[in-house]
Amino acid sequence: MARTCEITGKGAIRGNKVSHSNHRTKRVFSPNLQTKKFFVPEENKEITLRVSAEGIRHINKNGVYASIKKAREKGYTTK
Length: 79
Known about the structure:
- About 25% of the residues lie in helices and about 35% in strands.
- By secondary structure, it is α+β, with helices and mostly antiparallel strands.
- It has a domain at about 30-79.
- The mean pLDDT is about 95.
- The longest helix is centred in the C-terminal third of the chain and has 11 residues, at about 65-75.
- It is built from two helices and four strands.
- The two termini are about 15 Å apart.
- It has a two-stranded antiparallel ribbon. It has a two-stranded antiparallel ribbon with strand order 3-4.
């Protein structure tokens, strides 16, 4: 499974690890992903999503059904 949020679409990005001597090596910055279960009353079922911390905040603010609907329109969620 890819390291992407199913609500916001956030994924891993690449950058440099910089040492004290300013030597640079490539590294990966991973998003803060959590596997969480949400109950969707409109569909009357429980779904499991792999969401970032920002995605959880979106769900808390806008509601789970509205967030999933917007993510489906953008193509982030496949469920």
